[in-house]
Structures are given as structure tokens and as C-alpha cells.
Amino acid sequence: MPAPVTIQNSYSLVSRGVDNDLAETLFREEMSLLAYSPLAGGMLSGKYRGGAQPHASRFTLFDGLGARFRKPNVAPAIDAYADVAKAFGLTLTQLALGYVNSRWFVGASIIGATSMAQLTEDIAAARRELTPDALAAIAAVQVNFPSPAG
Question: What Cα–Cα distance (Å) separates residue 11 from each residue in 3, 55, 69, 107, 109?
């Protein structure tokens, strides 16, 4: 029987559990990660920053959805990443998708766009390669917020 070639796990700037033991397993088993929720349910698009509740958005319509992305350190981490994005002339979406795509173990990302505008932005962002300086700035934020969504 053929061996698996990928696994599907949540992976984003705020949900980095794969970075621990699982990344080593992926390496040893010659597998890749199919990263889902690379924008943390839309949190890393910036649309919920400052407590915003956009009309007809997932977390506005479904209050109990995505509890892991509503943990106390998630919002401050996202604000810190937004500052990094701004410093490098990027949108938060570009930073978030660029980071996920920069990881050696990611084979592909599952984006959950709900409109054509979101899909267009996500595709363009996913094609953007982050500079070593941007990745270093992300790493500096990760020291304070290793995996705030757990």
C-alpha cells in the first residue's frame, strides 16, 4: 500500500504546533503539510483587528466558531505581525501567507476565501516571497508569541 504523502493540519503565524515534533516526522517520513487555515479563520487578514465584527463574516455570524483564534494572546500577536507587515510594505495577508509558504514542510495551503476579492488577494499574497529580513522580524515576534492559538 502506498505511504501517505501529506497531512492536513492547522498552520499559521498564530497556530504553529507543526513546528515542534511534527516537522521532524514530516522530514523523516518524506511528507509535506497541507496547511489549513493559514489566515487563522480570517484573523490574519486583519479584518477583526481592534475588536471589529465585519458584517456577515464567519466570526460575526458564528460566535462559537474558532475559539482557538480568540485566545487572549492571539490579538496582541496579530497586532505585532501587522506592525512587521507594515514595516516591510506588506499587507497582513501577504505576511501571513508568505510565512506559511516559506516553511520547508508546507506542500500547499488551503485558503478559505469567501469572495472573489479575497481569493484574488490570497493568490497574489501566496506568490509573494518574504525576504530574510522579514522572516527575521517574524521570528522576533514569535519569541514573545510562540503559538498563541495553540
Answer: 22, 26, 12, 12, 9
Domains recognised in the chain with CATH numbers: 6-144 (3.20.20.100)
pLDDT 10s per residue in the chain (150 long)?
Answer: 888 999 999 999 999 999 988 999 999 999 999 999 999 988 999 888 888 777 777 776 677 777 788 888 999 999 999 999 999 999 999 999 999 999 999 999 998 887 898 889 888 887 889 999 999 999 999 999 999 997
Is the pTM value of this prediction over 0.85? yes
Query: Per DSSP, what are the bridge partners of residue 9?
Result: 35
